[in-house]
Write a structure and sequence with these properties.
The structure is a single chain. Helices cover about 5% and strands about 55% of the residues. It is mainly β. A hairpin with a 4-residue loop joins strand 7 and strand 8.
Length: about 775
């Protein structure tokens, strides 16, 4: 019955449990069994067939809980068992356990194991499932003639729970029958209700546990051989990460002398917008276990250690000979946890070092240094109070302090997420206030604010979402966060219909209709207005389809493209159409295809895009994925330059070609080779120039090639990473990376792809070879040895 919570009793154990997948300790026979799994999707509520029943038991001692899961399968030879790297589900059967140590319906610690023995773990809320978080736990898998068996040991150090003598945890088990694309849970999760975590069962029986000290040391050492600009260099780095459990609920993470040299490269593009390009965070410290720090969306962690903030002033006889494009991080720490009363506390602090450019006098040849970034302290504080089992209110403060006469910033936010007890309706919103101090003397500063209210129906086949938002002109969170636009108010509405159980035609189906309108505060002009209708569904063969229509029915105005406060340019009416087909990845060969077209109410001003990505799983160890993207803009118009007091716009054709190849070879579930390669070519070729009028429209200026062509841009990029990764012990890794990259930028358009490739590789290839070793040390193991 929907809403009924199952319960399972954990059994205390004193004997050692060997994690080998054999379940050969007799104590397992005394533990109660959790069974009778129910389908989560696609056919919500359907019981798991007896021939594929699942039986789970739990034991515990003072150090950890132990999980034994037996997955029966009447056709074990058909089980999918792709070997992947950690946190990659791939094409495989899976078992998982979801634990909420506070039983408050707010956050799960999730641990999965595939039938190939690969581990995945995540911190999960209703909004996100964060697989960048990694815990230290053990698992073992045995495939049998009746199915497969998982045995797990999850130390208390990997969990958070109250200090009560008698524990009551939220608990659910998960099983995926991948070959059928079916997912099951032990306690039924009713998809009529818009929340997953509160529908967990209960784990009882854990009493009087005395968790050990949670102190972990992770020293590392790295070597880099770098060949850049025809110069070779050798670098050796060493440092230390520390994880310390202050108590049962709070943890301190710190990095001393960090090393991020092996993080994934950024997918740089030819950026013609007025905004910076936003990049994904690839540094583990800033991605692992950061859910609480994302409350209020005030943290864009790429700011920490990002580009320098100060401009260099040169005399007529000076030139820059060394210009750093990033700032080194000196140290960083995170403190996070939750009290017995449901108060979550998060503190993030990071310090970046002073950074200098090197200047040379071309006459005297003397050199000097110029400060381009001072010492900077970044601090984020989050207080998140949970209550009512499924609601929360958060206070957030982000502060950026720069040494000396540089800009400082402070942003505070009140964020609420209120749900009805039955998880059928939600009222969410925020109020944020920013203060910018341009100088130490608090002169030339400015304040701004943003507020929003969002009402959502979260249950049933028919759902809706209503949003109102206001952002003032001087609202600015860009010292520690990221926000591209401000100074507008917005109304948004969405209606969606979905099926909750399969039909004769679809496994899943959803239709959405959305509309949004934005008004600029001072002028009242519409800066964005659209209607979007979209539908997506999974066929009975589990192929995915999506189709959408996006209409901007009126001329709107862009207050950012001109790059001058108070000026704006027009955007014509447009209509765009896109489709997406993604075939079932269970097949050895699968493909994604995504065409897109956009037509403007302006002669020959269109966009055409075609994306295709075939993939082939050669066997359970080898996967290859190729993707290609072609985008062509005809008669696009945008900002070019300033000419005195005039703002110049240009009409241009734009072409972008991107090709990517990724491959994986898994020796076993702890050792993999990964290949990632990306070629990117984009150009903007101008044929006319205009001046921007005060009403936002354009006056023709010239089509003289001698005047227009100097604004042309042609960019080629190449990135190649080949990595070998070996997890030789729990949380201990040896990683070997070979990387090369190249960049070719010029103002002369080269329409021939072959010649672009020749230009790219003729004189620009840089290479890096590196080896990094990280070793995980548990303080308790050191104490036992002593």
């Amino acid at each position: 019955m929907a809403g009924q919570k199952k319960s399972l009793q954990a059994v205390s154990v004193t004997e050692n449990i060997t994690i080998n997948g054999k379940l050969d300790e007799t104590v397992w026979n005394s533990a109660p069994i959790a069974t009778d799994f129910v389908m989560f999707e696609p056919d919500n509520g359907k019981p798991l067939d007896h021939s594929k029943r699942t039986e789970v038991r739990i034991l515990y001692d003072n150090k950890a809980i132990y999980v034994a899961a037996v997955m029966y399968d009447d056709e074990p030879q058909k089980m999918l068992r792709e070997i992947t790297e950690r946190d990659d589900f791939g094409t495989s059967e899976h078992f998982g356990i979801f634990i909420n140590g506070f039983n408050d319906g707010q956050q799960d610690y999730r641990f999965f194991v595939s039938a190939a023995g690969v581990q995945m773990d995540a911190l999960a809320t209703e909004a996100t499932e964060d697989f960048s978080w990694n815990a230290i736990w053990e698992s073992s898998v045995k495939v049998t003639d009746f199915g497969w068996v998982v045995e797990m040991r999850i130390p208390y150090a990997a969990l958070r729970f109250s200090p009560e003598a008698k524990q009551t945890w939220g608990l659910n088990f998960f099983r995926e029958l991948r070959r059928y694309r079916q997912k099951y849970t032990w306690n039924r999760v009713n998809t009529q209700i818009g929340a997953f975590i509160p529908q967990a069962g209960i784990l009882e029986g854990i009493e009087n546990i005395k968790p050990p000290t949670r102190l972990f040391l992770i020293p590392y050492a790295s070597y880099y051989y770098d060949y850049t600009d025809h110069e070779a260099g050798n670098t050796f780095k060493a440092g230390l990460d520390i994880k310390y459990g202050i108590n049962d609920s709070f943890t301190l993470d710190a990095i001393l002398v960090p090393d991020f040299g092996q993080t994934k490269f950024d997918n740089v593009v030819l950026n013609l917008t007025p905004f910076e390009q936003q990049f994904n965070e690839n540094r583990p410290f800033f991605t692992e276990g950061t859910d609480i720090f994302n409350k209020g969306s005030l943290l864009y962690s790429r700011r920490i250690g990002g580009p320098p903030v100060a401009d260099v002033v040169l005399s007529p006889d000076e030139e820059i000979i060394e210009s750093p494009n990033s700032v080194d991080l000196l140290n960083a720490l995170k403190l996070s946890g939750r009290t017995k009363g449901g108060l979550g506390i998060g503190v993030l602090n990071a310090v970046t070092e002073r950074t200098f450019a090197k200047i040379r006098n071309t006459v005297t040849q003397e050199t000097r240094e110029a400060l381009v970034s001072p010492l900077v302290n970044y601090n984020l504080l989050v207080l998140d109070q949970r209550f009512g089992g499924n609601s929360s209110v958060s206070l957030v403060n982000a502060n950026t302090f720069r040494e000396g006469n540089f800009r400082d910033a402070n942003v505070s936010a009140l964020v609420w997420d209120l749900n009805t007890k039955a998880n059928t309706y939600k009222l969410a919103g925020d109020f944020k206030y920013s203060t910018i101090n341009e100088t130490v003397g608090f002169e030339n500063g400015y304040d701004g604010f943003k507020t929003a209210v969002n009402f959502i129906k979260t249950h049933g086949n028919h759902r809706y979402d209503l949003l109102a938002k206001y952002i003032s002109k001087d609202y600015d969170i860009n010292d520690m966060g990221i926000a591209f636009i401000n100074n507008y108010y917005n109304f948004y509405a969405n209606y969606n219909y979905r099926i909750l159980n399969p039909t004769k035609t679809f496994n899943s189906f959803r239709f959405d209709l959305s509309s949004s309108i934005e008004f600029q505060n001072q002028t009242g002009k519409v800066q964005d207005y659209y209607w979007i209708a979209s539908t997506n569904f999974n066929s009975k063969k589990n192929d995915y389809w999506n189709a959408s229509i996006n209409v901007h029915p009126i001329t709107s105005y862009d207050f950012y493209q001109p790059r001058v406060d108070g000026r704006y340019s027009y955007n014509p009416r447009t209509a765009s159409f896109s489709t997406l087909f993604s075939s079932n990845y269970n097949r050895k060969f699968a493909i994604d295809v995504n065409p897109y077209v956009s037509f403007a109410d302006e002669q020959d001003r269109n966009v055409f895009e075609f994306y295709v990505s075939p993939r082939y799983r050669i066997n359970d160890r080898v996967l290859l994925v190729l993707s290609g993207d072609y985008i062509f803009h005809t008669n696009d118009r945008g900002f070019v330059d300033f000419d005195g007091t005039d703002i110049l716009f240009g009409e241009r054709d734009r072409k972008t070609v991107t090709a990517e190849l990724s491959g994986r070879y898994s020796i076993n579930n702890r050792m993999t080779f990964n290949l990632t390669a990306r070629y990117y070519w984009s150009y903007a070729e101008y044929d006319e120039l205009f001046t921007l009028r005060n009403d936002g429209f354009l006056n023709y200026l010239t089509n003289n090639p001698a005047t227009v062509s100097p604004y042309d841009e042609n960019l080629n990029l190449w990135n190649f990473d080949l990595t070998y990764s070996w997890w030789f012990a729990p949380a201990s890794q040896i990683s070997v990376l070979y990387r090369n990259n190249a960049l070719d930028y010029r103002t002369a358009i080269e329409n021939n792809l072959g010649r672009n490739v020749d230009n790219l590789f003729s004189n620009n290839l840089n290479s890096v070879f590196s080896i990094s070793v990280r070793y995980f040390i548990d303080y308790n193991s050191l104490r036992r040895k002593s």
